[in-house]
Specification:
elongated
């Protein structure tokens, strides 16, 4: 809510400073948003279907198996399927922790869930180019793996 109020205040200040530029900027922003909207809707539908079709208990069973390293790799792979905001990913991580999933695996899953996006790749490719989308996703996957390893070290889960 605060974000909306700040945004509205900035628009009002901009409008007071230069009505023409503010209206032109708003029109341009709305036009760009409407151009992106079809691709964004496809991405949201695909991500929602993927999350709806995979039962929560299947996720927790897969991620809390005996081999932590394999579970972390599964977490990286599963999280890479869709991009999800933190306000959804972190509560999901809490649910997984309550079901006994190790912190290292939760870190792999949630960080890749928020940073890597296989389902969003076509949208990224369309707007930013193939090379950028590939590099961004690869770097994000590497960072997610490093975060998982760091969490494993911090919580003592890397040792047998």
């Amino acid at each position: 809510m605060e974000f909306l109020l700040v945004t509205l205040a900035v628009i009002v200040l901009s409008f007071a400073a230069d009505k023409g530029k503010t209206l032109a900027g708003l029109k341009g922003g709305i036009r760009k948003f409407l151009n992106i909207l079809p691709a964004l809707m496809v991405m949201l539908i695909l991500a929602s279907l993927a999350l709806a079709l995979v039962p929560e208990d299947l996720i927790s069973r897969s991620l809390s198996g005996g081999n932590r390293y394999l579970a972390a790799l599964l977490g990286l792979a599963g999280g890479s399927l869709a991009v999800m905001p933190g306000f959804i990913a972190f509560p999901l991580g809490g649910i997984l922790r309550n079901q006994g999933v190790p912190y290292m695996v939760i870190a792999a899953f949630t960080s890749s869930l928020m940073m890597v996006g296989i389902l969003t790749f076509p949208v990224e490719k369309q707007f930013f180019g193939t090379r950028f989308a590939l590099v961004r996703n690869l770097v994000s996957l590497i960072i997610s793996a490093l975060v998982a390893l760091a969490m494993g070290l911090v919580f003592g889960e890397l040792l047998p």
